[in-house]
Design goal:
heterodimer; A: about 425 residues; alpha+beta; Alpha-Beta Plaits; five-stranded antiparallel beta sheet; 12 helices; about 25% helix; about 20% strand; globular; B: about 230 residues; mainly beta; Immunoglobulin-like; twelve-stranded mixed beta sheet; 13 strands; about 10% helix; about 35% strand
Chain lengths: ~425, ~230
């Protein structure tokens, strides 16, 4: 049911695609390769995502093209009072920058009028929350249990404050990061960062499932923004809609936010952020059938091997002429789904990263060819309840997933995402003033 | 929640951080209108402080005034204020000055600058004659001037700042600014500092936030005594 609905959404609400499609088909010109059309929707630079809202932006927000994830360590002597000063400064910066205005003391105000859907999402780690009192720290706000596939680098697996800065304009993202970090540096030091990306604005119709560096569509099973599924699975609350429609995974329970501490309720959620290195060199050695077998999907369309369309529901029981399931039970699709438990769903808001190593340090892949990529995925998994939603999936994938032979988790952090705020307030106020 | 994106407004006010501007109540005569006065940031009357302090000779507010962010405390600390009641009532109708987007450069010790936009919504020119703050031993109004060699120096602004009727004056690094000297204790990033501007229309008290800032390092005119 919801699958169909998402198709409708894809064609109407995210109307850019429909417009472009119609434009391509309309001319009678028989030219085989239609020229790219100019952007007729207006400049993107001035587009804003609201900052003052029930939820922080950057979660349910359609992911912009660029992201910068930054983990910060609070200075040892930081007090609750100083943490509040920091959060006020950073909140004011974010409130201005995301709305196209220069924050106080911005030496480059010329870089602010084109935020291009800039968002700044704050995540709180255990130590920051504990400054307000240990009693406010939920038991899930700590490192995940160890998985056998993990090769975690300690410096990428820590932090007390997360800044997730997203936007369609890389220059606006960079400037926002500079302004935020200049205000943060009296209080905290950068532990790690990742600059990451999806397709550029305008390359695809808005709402198109992104592709990762392996070429796979990545996030097909996500709950759709604005849906009842999303509200329950990510915010742990209901939209209040009279006749909600649920995905083929079934109706998620209404109580997934039950474990939220008081300061996180009514608008907050949780984030598990996994930095997953992708071995492009060994992936290069895998031919197409092996790749599709591993993921359980057709690479071109993203359709499950039992279907024809990306959003077709995988049939994990369908067998081929030999009696073998057409989707391997060890494939990524099969391992990540639990049809019996609708709460075992997450919202993955992923971004790719890619770097080019210098020859002197690149090393070689298994077949002896020099590595040309340092690539991976910032796997940002939002869910109301880490224990009931994320962990069961991760345990299955950590135990067996054919994709694991090409992917390695090298960073892992867990964050509380405080609710959004009203104008004049600061992110985390309900924690520190509550 | 998928809120439709909207278009950025033309840049106007700089930031969401509206510094809180209040006026020091100098008279019980204005007490009935205090609520409105606070909201509209109306400057109230001539105070003893203005009468006693010139732009250069400002002494630090005494300890009893350090809590002047509370207007009632200010009133209590100003025993002579009731005598200026009539003047205060007049001024409150005519002379509001608003310090928008105010901030001060964080500093461990010594001196530092305060910046923002001074807006004069009245229909007559306003002169800023001095400044004071409990955070500083003294405060001055400075401008940045170029010398013959092309380098810029900070120096005290002769005659203070003029804010045109219905207009504004920018206080910014490399330009006019309020200089806080002889800091009483470190001003840390995120701290809030209350500064009183002395004007020919009364005093205006504003609380501004401290930001870490590595600019605003202009040299001083050598003979200025800093």
């Amino acid at each position: 049911m919801d699958i169909r609905r998402r198709h409708v959404l894809g064609a109407s609400v995210f109307g850019v695609g429909a417009g472009v499609g119609a434009g391509l088909l309309a001319p009678r010109d028989p030219a085989p390769a239609p020229a790219a059309l100019p952007d007729t929707s207006g400049l993107n630079g001035a587009r804003l995502e609201p900052f003052h809202a029930r939820h922080q932006a950057g979660v349910e927000t359609i992911p912009p093209a660029h992201a910068l994830f930054i983990g910060l360590d609070l200075e040892e002597e930081t007090t609750a009072r100083r943490a509040v000063s920091m959060l006020r400064l950073l909140t004011d910066d974010a409130a201005a920058l995301t709305q196209g205005r220069a924050p106080l003391a911005d030496p480059e105000p010329e870089l602010t009028p084109q935020p291009a859907r800039l968002t700044v999402t704050f995540g709180f780690g255990e130590r920051l929350v504990a400054l307000a009192g240990r009693r406010h720290v939920p038991d899930w706000l700590r490192p995940l249990e160890e998985f056998t596939i993990d090769r975690l680098e300690p410096e990428r697996s820590r932090g007390d404050l997360l800044l997730q800065i997203c936007g369609d304009d890389a220059l606006a993202v960079a400037h926002a990061a500079r302004m935020l970090l200049k205000d943060a540096r009296a209080f905290a030091a950068v532990a790690w960062s990742r600059t990451a990306f999806r397709r550029a604005y305008g390359s695809d119709p808005t709402g198109t499932t992104q592709r990762n560096m392996f070429g796979q569509v990545d996030g097909t099973a996500n709950p759709g923004p604005g849906s009842e599924d999303f509200a329950r699975l990510v915010w742990g609350e209901s939209t209040g809609r009279a006749d909600p429609v649920f995905s083929a995974r079934g109706e998620p329970p209404l109580d997934l936010g039950a474990d939220h501490p008081a300061w996180l309720r009514e608008g907050g959620t949780t984030l598990v952020l996994r930095d997953i290195a992708m071995d492009m060199e060994t992936w290069d050695e895998a031919d197409r059938p092996a790749r599709e077998f591993a993921v359980g999907r057709d690479l071109a369309s993203g359709a499950p091997l039992t279907g024809t369309d990306e959003h077709d529901v995988p049939d994990l029981t369908a067998v081929d002429a030999r009696g073998l399931t057409r989707i391997s039970p060890a494939s990524h699709v099969a391992r990540s789904r639990n049809e019996a438990k609708p709460e075992e769903q997450i919202f993955r808001r992923v971004y790719n990263y890619h770097g080019v190593p210098e020859a002197s340090t690149a090393g070689t892949g298994p077949s002896g060819s020099r590595r040309v990529s340092t690539a991976g995925l910032m796997f940002a998994s939002y869910q109301a309840d880490i224990g009931r939603q994320f962990l069961p999936i991760q345990r299955r994938l950590g135990g067996m997933d054919l994709l694991n032979q090409w992917t390695t988790p090298i960073g892992s952090t867990v964050w509380a995402i405080p609710p959004g705020i009203a104008d004049g307030d600061y992110i985390g106020s309900r924690l520190f003033e509550g | 929640m998928k809120t439709p994106t909207t278009t950025a407004p033309a840049r106007t006010a700089l930031a969401a951080t509206a510094p809180t501007t209040t006026t020091r109540a100098t008279s019980r005569a204005v007490a009935p209108g205090l609520g409105r006065a606070l909201l509209t940031a109306t400057a109230i009357g001539l105070s003893l402080g203005l009468a006693a302090c010139g732009p250069t000779g400002s002494s630090a507010p005494g300890p009893s005034e350090s809590g002047a962010a509370d207007p009632t405390a200010g009133a209590a600390a100003d025993p002579g204020g009731s005598e200026t009641g009539d003047a205060a009532a007049e001024a409150s109708d005519a002379a509001p000055l608003v310090w928008e987007d105010g901030w001060v450069k964080a500093a461990e010790e010594g001196m530092t600058g305060a910046f923002g936009t001074l807006r004069n919504p009245t229909d007559s020119e306003l002169r800023i004659t001095g400044a004071e703050s409990a955070a500083a031993g003294s405060a001055e109004l400075h401008e940045t001037a170029s010398d013959d060699g092309g380098s810029t120096m900070m120096q005290e602004k002769e005659g203070g700042f003029l804010v045109p009727a219905g207009g504004s004056l920018s206080l910014e690094p490399g330009g006019d600014h309020v200089m806080l000297m002889d800091l009483q204790e470190p001003i840390l990033p995120g701290d809030e500092v209350t500064i009183t501007l002395l004007t020919d229309g009364g005093e205006v008290e504003t609380t501004v936030v401290a930001k870490e800032f590595t600019g605003a390092q202009e040299e001083y005119v050598q003979d200025h005594g800093h």
